[in-house]
Amino acid sequence: MKFKNQYIIYFKGLKEGIHDFEYKIEKPFFEEYMNLDIFDGNVGVQVKLNKENNFMELDVDLSGNIQVQCDRCLTYFDLPIAFTGHLMVKFNEKQQESYEEVMILHPEDNQLDLKHYLYECISLSVPLRKVHPDMPDGRSGCDPEMLKLLMKHLISE
Fold first, then answer.
1. Does residue 157 lie within any of the structural domains?
2. 80 domain residue, yes or no
3. What is the pLDDT of residues 43-94, one digit of tens each?
4. Residue 124 belongs to domain spanning
5. How many domains does the chain have?
6. pLDDT per residue as tens digits for the range 118-146
7. Is the residue at 122 inside a domain?
8. Does the residue 59 lie in any domain?
9. What is the pTM of this model?
């Protein structure tokens, strides 16, 4: 796929200091991560990388819309999402697993692949319950025909 290397930062040639990167996350990304239950989307990502001699700090902001299935009426709708994160990248010769907001790389590595980190950011942005937002007049944004069927089968005490 074309986007496989799209989220890689080659940091070896970068001078110390602040560097800005921008990315777009669209349908091919969501097709690879089908377990997110996101069918399409248009999410902008801004990364501010502060490169120091022994570590890097990244401030990551993402915002946009993703297409999800409504848990109530089962139709698809665009859900706005936003996420702000801070990632610390440290270097260590001993192979260690990354944890929380810290990523460990070998000192000889020359690139940072953000694809999995962006996947995690988006995962944290999706609410547990995805339901159409209400209309400006207060009515539900869900499919009216499906709401009628749900009301027909509603069990009341």
1. no
2. yes
3. 999 999 999 988 999 999 999 999 999 999 999 999 999 999 999 999 888 7
4. 2-152
5. 1
6. 999 999 999 999 999 988 998 888 988 98
7. yes
8. yes
9. 0.83
Residue 3 in contact with residue 24, Cβ under 8 Å? no
Q: How far is the C-alpha of 122 from the C-alpha of 36, rounded, in Å?
A: 9
Place of tokens 């496989």: 4
From residue 119, alpha-carbon distances to 76, 79, 116, 131 in Å are 21, 16, 5, 21
Buried/exposed code over 53-65 (b: 16+ C-beta within 10 A; e: otherwise): eeebebebebebe
What letter represents residue 40's amino acid? D
Q: Give 65-116 as a 3 state SS string.
A: EEEEECCCCCCEEEEEEEEEEEEEEEECCCCCCCECCEEEECCCCCEEECHH
Instruction: List all residues 6 or more positions away from 71 whose beta carbon is below 8 Å from its beta carbon.
Output: 129, 130, 131
Number of CB atoms found within 10 A of residue 121's CB: 21
